[in-house]
Amino acid sequence: MLKKYKDEQEFYSLVGIKLQTFQKMVEILKKAEAIKKAVGGKPNKLSIENRLLMTLEYWKEYSSYRVIAKRYNISHTSCIRNIFWIENTLIKSGIFNLSGKKDLIKNKGINNNLLAIDATETPIERIKKTKITFFG
Predict the structure, then answer these.
(1) CA distances from 94 to 91, 111, 117, 136 (A)
(2) What residues does 43 pair with on adjacent strands?
(3) What is the value of pTM for the model shown?
């Protein structure tokens, strides 16, 4: 799945982050995986780069785990496990965190602008199953 991109602008428009940021994330994830693999375990089917791309795809497009798993030819549970590991590892690194509420109040916002983040979850409307009867 990891492809060659024409330039950094194409990479940014398709992935959603700059190439330098991506490379920094890969570096952090490789260090974390080396520590994880020192204990032992089964090797992952996907490379770190592909797992990170999969996670970024999930964040950007908000596709379901099943759809992403199908694209990367892995199981649904493996997709969830990989995305959770990537998210948790990047959060624990401390480099990719958003400023907290106290920092925003202390600095009176970012560049004196109002910052609003919509983090609400909305339920998915599903078609109700109905019984089909044929008259004849």
Answers:
(1) 6, 23, 20, 67
(2) none
(3) 0.69
For residue 100 the two structure tokens come to 């907290």
Place of tokens 């992952």: 44
* Percent of the chain clearing pLDDT 90 (strictly above): 38
CA separation for the pair 106, 113 (Å, rounded): 13
Tell me the domain boundaries of the chain.
Answer: 9-106
Question: How many angstroms separate the CA atoms of 101 and 109, rounded?
Answer: 9
Tell me the two tokens of residue 17. 């982050």
Residue with tokens 């428009």: 13
110 DSSP β-pair partners: 113
Task: Return all residues near 60 (Cβ < 8 A) that are at least 6 apart.
Answer: 15, 16
Of the chain, the end-to-end C-alpha distance in Å amounts to 52
